[in-house]
Write a structure and sequence with these properties.
Elements (H helix, E strand, L loop, with lengths): L2 E4 L1 H9 L2 H14 L9 E4 L6 E6 L2 E8 L4 E9 H4 L2
Parallel strand pairs: 1-5
Antiparallel strand pairs: 2-3, 3-4, 4-5
Length: 86
């Protein structure tokens, strides 16, 4: 089981989400606790970064880094697609 922590920016973004999107993000984060690349989510490794992944949830993206030794996931951002990769 992985420990999940959100950065200050990710927490701000989460708090500003509409309720329906918050529920989807919360469900995705709960799935990430058990596997950092669950089959039930659209997860891809980001090129050019070490251990950095993204989850696609409709128009939202969750950007996170995995530390397998410490069994932890650091969520850097919960962003709309247009802002996630810039």
């Amino acid at each position: 089981m992985y420990y999940i922590s959100l950065t200050k920016n990710a927490t701000k973004s989460y708090n500003k989400l509409p309720e329906k999107s918050k529920n989807r993000v919360e469900a995705a984060l709960n799935e990430l606790r058990y596997s950092f690349t669950p089959n039930t989510l659209d997860v891809k490794k980001l090129k050019g970064f070490k251990n950095v992944y993204r989850v696609r949830l409709g128009k939202w993206r969750i950007i996170y880094r995995v530390d397998t030794e410490e069994k932890s996931i650091f969520v850097y951002g919960i962003l709309p697609r247009k802002n996630a990769y810039g």
